[in-house]
Amino acid sequence: MTALTQETAAALSETVAVPSYDRSRLTAGIVHIGVGGFHRAHQAMYLDRLMNEGKAHDWAICGVGLLPGDARMRDALTAQDGLYTLVLKHPDGTREARVIGSIIDYLFAPDDPEAVIEKMADPSVRIVSLTVTEGGYNIHPVTGAFDAQAPAIRADLEPGAIPATVFGLVTEALRRRRARGLVPFTVMSCDNIQGNGEVARHSFTAFARLVDAGLADWIEAAVAFPNSMVDRITPVTTDEDREAVAELFGILDAWPVTCEPFTQWVLENDFSRGRPPFEEAGVQVVGDVEPYELMKLRLLNAGHQALCYFGYLGGHRYVHEAATDPALAKFLLDYMDLEATPTLRPVPGVDLDGYKRTLVERFSNAEVRDTLARLCAESSDRIPKWLLPVVREQLARGGPVTRAAAVVASWARYAEGSDESGEPIVVVDRLGDRLMAAARTQRQRPTAFIEDRELFGDLADDERFVAPYLRALESLHAEGARATVRWLAG
């Protein structure tokens, strides 16, 4: 077994692909905030591809962690000189590994926020990219307003405060660049949000306006916020994954990443100070991302939600188990075909029927072992952004919402905190206590869960949504998840 470091990487080349480029000659052109499994399976991988072709050597990544839990990533990457193993899990059981070398530094903001700010203020940094989760933009899910009263935001706005949030750190770095007469960096969101670039623009300018109106005007006029659509199923790394990397490839890696073979990145060509030649690594660089992102959010992401709660309540624990359950698979396809697809615009170069078939195949990959619990987490950030837009568009056009309403009902039943065998469910959600409190009253007041107007707006007032929601919820309580899915799948 070999511990993964820069010194040992060359010796590993007999068992895995390793960087062919001289990492000592790389310079950081990107600061990425929120280094998790997805970023390392996606953006960092694309850059590594370019670097292996002799390109983008001045676009290496300096990772940044903001949260206390990110200290683990700091320790893992620092010990391994930024290297890690990326393992593709093919459906036939084949494992394909390579060592990724595009991350050359990692800063943990709670240790030294000044170092993070100055790194972003450095003229060599031309992109600050983000994977801060769907809920990380501090946007109200219904009104779309920036929450200036959030405790962390208020703390950052105190006179003389040392920035701690992504908004405080990035805004201060931009303020310094403006004061020094430097061109601003591009802010590139890589989160699963419709119009993620526009959402980022709104959030950062709203925060900056609370600091300095002139700075906010400059950011609005001078900073590019490209939209993007990102896609690769990347489960949480387990100890079993670490053991497999050691056994199959002889690598002791504290934090490898596993993922499916499929990957996609559609990126708007809008940058303040240039960009790597992403298109040469397989990225689709386009003028309008929206058709692609709506396709992905409403089919893949909302499709995951269609599977996860029903699947978990019905006794499944892995995505592939739910996706290969015949009734659940038909329910998923009916949702995609009859409710989601009619809300989509034409997607250049994409056969939507083929895309949907591919989704079912991807979900059915037993080797990935993606958990339903992962998909059920943080639902209050996901359902309003991925599924409810389908509901609202269908209601506006007089279309069906039976299956989407049933997905919301399955979330409400899941949020009661116990499965059909009485086993406790760990509800992972920033609004978990509030959601569970409402869900536990819904046997007496069936609309209690959807009366949360911060999440659902006025949907509880629309009988076209409420009626199928209540039918599904009643069936979940009386008949259970499997019977409910069989009924819905017809």
User: First CA to last CA: what distance?
Assistant: 53 Å
Widest β-sheet, arrangement of strands: 6-3-2-7-8
Form type: globular
**Count of DSSP H/I helices:** 22
Main beta-sheet strand count, sense and barrel state: 5 strands, parallel
- List how many beta strands DSSP finds: 13
Spatial extent as radius of gyration: 23 Å
Tell me what portion of residues adopts beta-strand conformation: 5-15%
Give a topology summary.
Elements: E1 2-3, H1 6-9, E2 28-33, H2 37-41, H3 43-52, E3 60-65, H4 71-79, E4 84-89, E5 95-100, E6 103-108, H5 113-121, E7 127-130, H6 151-157, H7 166-179, E8 186-189, H8 196-211, H9 213-222, E9 228-231, H10 239-249, E10 251-252, E11 257-259, E12 264-268, E13 284-286, H11 290-313, H12 319-323, H13 326-340, H14 352-363, H15 372-376, H16 379-386, H17 388-397, H18 402-414, H19 432-439, H20 453-456, H21 463-478, H22 481-489
